[in-house]
Amino acid sequence: MNESDTYRIHPIGYIRRTDQGNQLEIMEAYQPALKQLEHFSHVMVFWWADKHDNEKSRTTLQTQPPYAADKLCGVFATRAEYRPNPIAMTTCKLLEVDEANGIVKVAEIDAFDGTPLIDLKAYFPVCDRVKDAHIPGWLSDWSEWMPEEGLGL
Amino acid sequence: MNESDTYRIHPIGYIRRTDQGNQLEIMEAYQPALKQLEHFSHVMVFWWADKHDNEKSRTTLQTQPPYAADKLCGVFATRAEYRPNPIAMTTCKLLEVDEANGIVKVAEIDAFDGTPLIDLKAYFPVCDRVKDAHIPGWLSDWSEWMPEEGLGL
Hints:
- 2 copies of one chain form a homodimer.
- By secondary structure, chain A is mainly β.
- Chain A has helices at about 55-60, 125-130, and strands spanning about 5-10, 15-20, 20-25, 40-50, 60-65, 75, 85-100, 105, 115-120.
- In chain A, the strands form 2 sheets. Chain A has a 6-stranded antiparallel β-barrel with strand order 2-3-8-7-4-9. A two-stranded antiparallel sheet of chain A has the order 5-6.
- The radius of gyration of chain A is 17 Å and the shape is globular.
- At the A-B interface, β1, β4, β6, β7 and β9 of A face β1, β4, β6, β7 and β9 of B.
- β1 (about 5-10) of chain A pairs antiparallel with β1 (about 5-10) of chain B.
């Protein structure tokens, strides 16, 4: 166990943004993993922030976020896509799951067209919905809930 | 963009379970990324399910979950640790953040001692808390909220 350990991950599909909406295109090999997903209202979409898979972004450990420019924050205290492992995660509202064709339509997602997908996890309130969550005072005007359609670009 | 693409991730620290509690030990190189995290009540802990980083687990696409043994589910519709990319994520209640020493104490976490950590993200209700979430009927007796102390082993 040391810092040079490396784990390997592979894309399971790609994000497609079109005039008709946003969809997750899952590679054929992984399509059986979608079974029953249509019974959930939301899915956590894990994507690879490929534009930040470089030395500069992966060694940026602190930032002044756009929403709080006077606060120097560690990247673990933000959702910045530049971080040591550029794994991003967006909770999305599910519109449609087509298991046979590997298409998952979502309302909104804050990732660019062509972004690699690395995992999907159904949203379970018992795991993911925190009743008494608080955030720093400088974010106190932010919504207490995810917007109905989710977060887009 | 094809199935053989590989992305590389590295541990940022390890989970330690002791009689005194559960803590995340962050490697020295990544400790500055913890700055300001103490102002949040919860953190999403991304860990590498190292016991499932093998061919069998990574090609298991469907499962009969212990809580619904008569339902064949795709792994994307579950939180199983066996999945194409064995990335697991647990939302944890923060107890203490010691940036200088790289120690983050959490109430509960459902990962074994020694498990590699790959990312931390502060829990933002605007991103992560869904007001109108629903789950399959066969899970209807599950809590609508994460337990106060979180999910343990």
